[in-house]
Amino acid sequence: MTDHNNHTESCDLDWTELPEILNTSHARLAALVLEARGIPCRLLRHGGGWQLSVPAEDREQAVRELDLYQRENRNWPPAAPVAAPHHPNTLITLSILGLLGIFFNLTWLAIDGFGHFPIGWLELGNANAGKILQGQWWRTITALTLHNDGLHLLGNLVIGGFFIDRLCREIGAGWGWALVLAAGALGNYANALLQPDWHRAVGASTAVFGAVGILASRSALRRRLHLPKRWLLPVAAAVALLGLLGSGGENTDIGAHLLGFLAGLALGWPAAYLTGRSSAAGIIAGGSAALLTVGAWLAALNWGA
């Protein structure tokens, strides 16, 4: 970039001015573009702006180069990802988490029923790998509603509540809870395939990390459409969170956490298209998830052993 006031050009060049008046930043950028293409140029002060001056013999090429640059960079930088509209579903999420807490208290009471005296909730509903593979599919779901102790429950309610509420505000409570349940059940089933027959597990942690995976996958897809070089950042952040929260404690089922997260990543791709969809479909999805959970426990109480 050359300033007319402080640089002397060779006298044998016939200079001509380009017609457009530019502000300072655009003028400097245009000068850099021309100099990069080997075209000499000057910046001339013109009122409140700047005007480019080039050798007359290079005028047509200069106009072509600037026009080409503008066309190639018309949509750069890309627009930021559109923020997803938020659904006011926090009360629904808190209510469901509250029901999970109430159910935890019921499992510690001596309740008779369905031929059990008393009902052994943990024995009937845990994710027993051998029995899951023998056909007791319901354990992949019932295990998500059981917890070993109050601290185990509290951790899942607090951490899970944050991520599940975020997901439900993005895509609605119906779809959100249905996908969280699906990710948790898939994670438990995949874990059963990899564990010995005697392996047992309980807890909503698998579903919680499923929610983390869904959120990461949705965010990555939005970034992929707008910022291709940064689309893996949400997934990398979620993996770091998995390592931070999902691998501590001697009773932690790392495999279930990881597989729940991977199931969430897979489910997050279709979930990325659910924002703004029919609320009726979301109600059906959420209702189906609730009925499936109740049906899983009825199956466990009637046929589980």
Order of helices and strands: EHEEHHHHHHHHHHH
Instruction: Please report the number of helical segments.
Output: 12
Sheet with the most strands, sense and barrel status: 3 strands, antiparallel
- Give the fraction of residues assigned to helices: 55-70%
Shape: rod-shaped
By CATH, the architecture of the largest domain is named Up-down Bundle
Ends apart, CA distance between termini: 82 Å
What amount of the residues lies in strands? 5-15%
Mean pLDDT: 81
CATH topology description of the largest domain: Rhomboid-like fold
Low-confidence stretches: 1-11
* CATH homology group of the largest domain: Rhomboid-like
CATH class assignment of the largest domain: Mainly Alpha
Radius of gyration: 31 Å
**SS-based class:** mainly alpha
Strand order of the largest sheet: 1-3-2
Q: Tally of extended strands?
A: 3
Brief overview:
The chain is mainly alpha-helical. The protein has twelve helices and three strands.
Present the secondary structure layout.
Blueprint: E1 15-22, H1 24-36, E2 42-46, E3 49-55, H2 59-72, H3 90-107, H4 121-125, H5 129-133, H6 139-142, H7 150-171, H8 173-194, H9 205-226, H10 233-245, H11 254-271, H12 279-303
Antiparallel strand pairs: 1-3, 2-3
Helix pairs in contact: 3-7, 7-8, 7-9, 8-9, 8-11, 8-12, 9-10, 9-11
Report on this structure.
With 305 residues, this protein is mostly helical. It has helices at residues 24-36, 59-72, 90-107, 121-125, 129-133, 139-142, 150-171, 173-194, 205-226, 233-245, 254-271, 279-303; strands at 15-22, 42-46, 49-55. It is rod-shaped, with a radius of gyration of 31 Å. Residues 1-11 have low confidence and may be disordered.
